[in-house]
Amino acid sequence: MNKTEEIKKIAEQIAKKYEPQKIILFGSYAWGNPGPDSDIDLLVIKETKDTRQMAREVDRLIFPRRFSLDLIVYTPDQVGRRMKLNDFFIKNILTKGKVLYG
Is 3-101 a CATH 3.40.1080.10 domain? Predict the structure, then answer.
């Protein structure tokens, strides 16, 4: 299985178990320039009371794995607040990232 297939499989697992609003791939895999040591960067947007706990649960769901994963979980409100603040990081993910689910 190549990395693109693995990324799709991960998104499917997360979507099936947690039903997030969105899953967005960002970083080198989304921009089309991954290197041999590139990690997989995912933003999961989900209504939850504890984003850190949700990130731990998602991380456990896709463990063990053969690659490094940078996982961010935000609620829709957190994303909205950061967009209002013109947060470049979030704006970049939302405008240039690849939506894998939602």
Answer: no
